[in-house]
Write a structure and sequence with these properties.
The complex is a heterodimer of chains A (418) and B (173).
Chain A (H helix, E strand, L loop, with lengths): L1 H12 L1 H33 L7 E5 L3 H8 L10 E2 H8 L4 E13 L2 E6 L2 H5 L1 E2 L3 E2 L2 E4 L7 E4 L1 H7 L6 E2 L18 E7 L9 E5 H7 L3 E2 L2 E2 L7 H5 L7 E2 L1 E6 L5 H9 L6 E4 L1 H12 L1 H30 L2 H9 L4 H42 L11 H25 L2 H5 L4
Parallel strand pairs in A: 4-11, 8-10
Antiparallel strand pairs in A: 1-15, 1-16, 2-14, 3-4, 3-15, 5-6, 7-10, 8-11, 9-10, 12-13
Helix pairs in contact in A: 1-13, 2-11, 2-13, 2-14, 11-14, 13-14
Chain B lengths: L2 H17 L12 E9 L2 E9 H4 L9 H16 L3 E3 L5 E11 L12 E10 L7 E4 L1 H4 L5 E8 L2 E8 L4 E3 L3
Parallel strand pairs in B: 1-7
Antiparallel strand pairs in B: 1-2, 2-5, 3-6, 4-5, 6-9, 7-8
Classes of the chains: A alpha+beta (418), B alpha+beta (173).
InterPro entries (chain A): ABC-4/HrtB_transporter, ABC3_permease_C, MacB_PCD
Membrane topology (chain A): Multi-pass membrane protein
Keywords (chain A): Cell membrane, Membrane, Transmembrane, Transmembrane helix
Chain lengths: 418, 173
């Protein structure tokens, strides 16, 4: 207790230096834990791009391929699913809900996705988060569109604005659906998933804007007005993929193999988590890169911390010599130095953790909106070992000057040096 | 596969089937067993597919009494489910087990391979405590090199591959 008191008193005499050292340790801890948290959350965020969906169904290709085009909107589908097959899947007694996804058109670089209003109910991400509306509501009219947060941010759209969709992926050929403009009925809140960069319209709307199109070109002389299209049969002929929810997870594998063995059309159904895991294996190099960065930060952070601690303690040689002169044992001197470095490290760690928490809270929305990264406030499991390493090294740092003070003669510290 | 449950779906395909020959062939990898685990409180369903090559060393109807005994032994081992150990904290009891050998009877299977399929139903008092499963297929059948375990629980779906001496499968109930 006396030791502790003495350490505190001594530290009070050197407020500036102590504050700087604590700050350096705090920054190192902040960096260390920050990189670790970003790495963990990037992976978690990716792994939960789709949650709450039991099966993802598309044309037969590969699980990763299906996931890429249907959920991440990267690349194209190898084939579509006919409406009849979709209806058959929907009619299976084990199936609780299905959400169709129809891709193909775009608007100024963003993908347009035809779906049903059930999408806003059943599509979940992260730990079971449902889609939320930042403004407006799901589409109700045929020519309503709901846009993702990223679309709204980049194109400065608001509810009520009118937009024209491009045929296919747009580009220079100017094939637009200008005759049938859409009204933005809602803007979704940011999710950190590909939904943010999506424009959702109803399946019927996708049909309606294509009534005059046949074999990839607009039929000359055919001009169905937006109003006329409303009265036509807008049942889709095909969709790109479907999300499937089941009544009971126990039937998941049976339904999966029934869909995979569906005789009339080659279909593929995958468990989204399994496909996401496979995809993460492919893009896992990014995680390894972050790991390497994490390791480098660890080295730099720890050496910064050690330098600060050693510099601080080196200044106290004289103080230690005086203590020895008034009768303190070498062991006391050693303990004093180790206590101080441990105290400084603990204070730095607390400050670092507090700083990280403050930053994650403050930057949460900004990071989500700009880079689509969801940073969790709860510590990642990998953070505890890192903190233990920091504490151990911090205490160890006290041992070096402690050992030096232990070994040195009294005269060394008391000598007046010019 | 639970045929009765998906039957209406298959039935819908029947008229089509009558008109044209159908050729579907699933994958079959020697040395690799697949295990599917689905959890819905309080039931845990486990289904496996094990290549005959790894279970008994041959994939044809038994030609000698030794081969017949091997098939019976493998069936009994699978039926006993001793290779599958749910986390003890979950208090799971085996409610039913059904082993179906394919391709070891009179008729050859399409593709010429033979497998052992098995389905198990466990009832667990504390599904929340079911944090892992021990899958010792590779211990019981040393020819198995790799066990691919797909899981679906309340927290989502996942796939883990067991290789070498590893037997632990993590579950997040």
């Amino acid at each position: 207790m006396k030791l502790f008191y003495l350490t505190l008193k001594s530290m009070r005499q050197r407020k500036g230096g102590v504050a700087l050292t604590v700050f350096t340790v705090a920054l190192s801890v902040f960096l260390l834990l920050g990189v670790e948290r970003v790495r963990t959350d990037a992976r978690l965020g990716f792994a939960s791009t789709v949650s709450g969906t039991d099966l993802l169904v598309g044309a037969r290709s590969g699980p990763v391929n299906l996931l890429l085009y249907s959920i991440f909107h990267i690349g194209e589908a190898t084939n579509n699913i006919t409406w009849k097959s979709y209806q058959d899947i929907r009619a299976m007694p084990e199936v609780a809900w299905t959400v169709p996804l129809s891709l193909g058109d775009s608007h100024r670089g963003f993908r347009v996705m035809g779906t049903s209003v059930d999408f806003f109910v059943h599509y979940h991400y992260g730990r079971g988060n449902a889609l939320a509306f930042f403004a407006g509501k799901p589409f109700t009219d045929l020519y309503d569109a709901v846009i993702g947060a990223e679309v709204a941010r980049q194109l400065h759209y608001k509810v009520g604005d009118r937009i024209v969709l491009s045929h296919g992926l747009g580009g220079a050929n100017l094939a637009t659906h200008a005759d049938k403009p859409f009204r933005i009925s809602g803007i979704m809140a940011p999710t950190g998933t590909p939904v943010d960069a999506t424009i959702a319209v109803s399946l019927e709307a996708i049909e309606a804007i294509h009534v005059d199109w046949h074999a990839g070109v607009r039929l000359p002389g055919m001009e169905t007005s937006a109003e006329q299209a409303r009265h036509m049969d807008l049942t889709p002929k095909a969709i790109t993929a479907a999300l499937v929810g089941l009544h009971s997870r126990l039937s998941a594998f049976a339904v999966q193999s029934a869909i995979n063995d569906y005789p009339e059309e080659p279909l593929l159904s995958v468990l989204p988590g399994v496909a996401l895991g496979e995809l993460w294996h492919l893009v896992g190099t990014a995680e390894s890169a972050l790991r390497v960065v994490s390791l480098m930060v660890l080295l730099v952070g720890i050496s910064g911390m050690l330098t600060a601690l050693l510099g601080m303690l080196g200044e106290r040689r004289r103080e230690m010599a005086v203590l020895r002169a008034v009768g303190a044992s070498t062991r006391t001197v050693f303990a004093l130095l180790v206590t101080e470095s441990t105290l400084l490290t603990v204070a730095g760690m607390l400050a670092g953790v507090a700083l990280l928490d403050a930053v994650t809270v403050l930057a949460h929305d900004y990071l989500l909106a700009t880079v689509g990264l969801v940073i969790d406030q709860t510590p990642a499991p990998g953070e505890w070992p890192l903190l233990a390493v920091v504490l151990a090294l911090g205490s160890l740092a006290g041992c070096i000057p402690g050992w030096v003070a232990y070994r040195r003669s009294l005269a060394d510290g008391l000598q007046v040096r010019l | 596969m639970k045929l009765p449950m998906v039957f209406p779906f298959l039935l819908a395909a029947l008229p089509f089937v009558a008109g044209a020959e159908e050729r579907h062939l699933g994958p079959h990898v020697h040395g690799q067993a697949s295990v599917n685990v689905s959890v819905q409180d309080p039931a845990v369903d486990v289904e496996i597919s094990l290549p005959g090559h790894d279970a008994v060393g041959f994939e044809h109807p038994p030609r000698s009494s030794q081969e017949r005994a091997a098939v019976e032994r493998a069936t009994a081992t699978l039926q006993g489910a001793s290779w599958l150990v749910p986390a003890p904290g979950a208090s799971c009891t085996l409610a039913s087990a059904k082993v179906t050998p394919h391709g070891f009877g009179g008729a050859a299977e399409p593709g010429g391979h033979a497998d052992f399929d098995a389905e198990y139903r466990y009832t667990c008092k504390k599904v929340n405590a079911l944090t892992h499963l021990d899958v010792r297929l590779a211990v019981v059948f040393p020819a198995v090199q790799k066990v691919v375990v797909s899981t679906i629980t309340a927290s989502g779906s996942n796939q883990q591959t067991l290789q070498g001496p590893a037997t632990g499968v993590d579950l997040e109930p």
